[in-house]
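Hi all, posting the design record for the shared folder.

TITLE: backbone redesign
STEP: 1 of 1
STRUCTURE INPUT:
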């Protein structure tokens, strides 16, 4: 099955969950940004988390931005999700060197760093967006999202993410899940959840075994008494257009645009999310000036 998000709730009503298969969108990001394995894994994890968080908002025309600045060699990771969970993103340094914890395990935390912040910007179609930040825990991203949900949004949660990068550098599998306790959950449920998450093991191992999202959530939740909702397709999607780029140019103001036109050279503007290049000749810039 292609990339999708699956939402669920335990039948006792104490835990809600969301899981994502994000193999294709993580591979698309790798192809666009030409990332090396550590950057592929870090960006893939961040895209998965951002997609799930964006989908969980359920605000029409809303969006969610996830930014991670850990002080590591990868630089900044920035991802943006729409209300459905379609997502786009980039890293400052896509050519970060290969670093492994051990054979077969990439050290994502070393590439991201842990001396910095994870910031979430929620556009809920209100006057001002909601912005929350927390200090990074490990730079492994899953643990950092868990800390964000617990500290900034006061929601006891568990986020697990995984990206398997093959020997030829393409994404073999990617995905993850977020589990959230609802208010009043008894200690027995909390204890069961802690134990089942540990027994389920890393997401990367579950992906490697070919487990479905249903199987992953049952393992992580520690029960098969789970109500699953209809899966929702997601993809790597950028919303840049030539018209949007023109509006950005207009925001520079008449003086700056006139200066660009007078230079007499074609202006190349590249989208950071999808690498699409937009070219504006001096004549086209003058036409924009006429239409302001």
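Okay, here is what came back for every position:
SEQUENCE:
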């Amino acid at each position: 099955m292609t990339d999708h998000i699956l939402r669920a709730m335990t039948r006792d009503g104490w835990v809600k969950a969301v899981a994502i298969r994000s193999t294709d969108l993580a591979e698309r990001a790798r192809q666009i940004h030409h990332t090396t394995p550590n950057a592929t894994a870090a960006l893939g994890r961040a895209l998965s988390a951002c997609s799930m968080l964006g989908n969980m908002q359920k605000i029409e025309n809303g969006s969610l931005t996830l930014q991670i600045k850990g002080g590591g060699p990868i630089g900044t990771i920035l991802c943006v999700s729409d209300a459905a969970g379609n997502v786009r993103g980039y890293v400052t340094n896509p050519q970060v060197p290969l670093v492994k914890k051990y054979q077969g395990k990439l050290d994502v935390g070393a590439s991201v760093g842990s001396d910095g912040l994870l910031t979430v910007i929620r556009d809920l179609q209100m006057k001002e967006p909601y912005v929350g930040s927390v200090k990074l825990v490990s730079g492994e991203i899953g643990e950092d999202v868990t800390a964000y949900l617990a500290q900034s949004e006061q929601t006891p949660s568990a986020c697990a993410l995984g990206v398997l990068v093959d020997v030829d550098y393409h994404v073999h599998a990617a995905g993850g899940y977020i589990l959230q306790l609802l208010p009043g959950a008894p200690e027995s449920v909390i204890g069961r959840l802690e134990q089942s998450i540990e027994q389920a093991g890393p997401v990367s191992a579950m992906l490697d075994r070919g487990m479905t999202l249903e199987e992953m959530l049952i393992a992580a939740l520690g029960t098969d008494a789970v109500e699953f909702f209809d899966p929702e397709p997601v993809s790597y999607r950028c919303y840049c257009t030539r018209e949007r780029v023109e509006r950005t140019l207009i925001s520079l103001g008449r003086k700056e645009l006139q200066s660009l036109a007078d230079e007499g050279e074609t202006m190349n503007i590249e989208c950071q999310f999808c690498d699409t290049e937009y070219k504006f000749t001096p004549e086209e810039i003058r036409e924009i000036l006429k239409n302001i």
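COMMENT: The radius of gyration is 21 Å.
Let me know if anyone wants the other runs.
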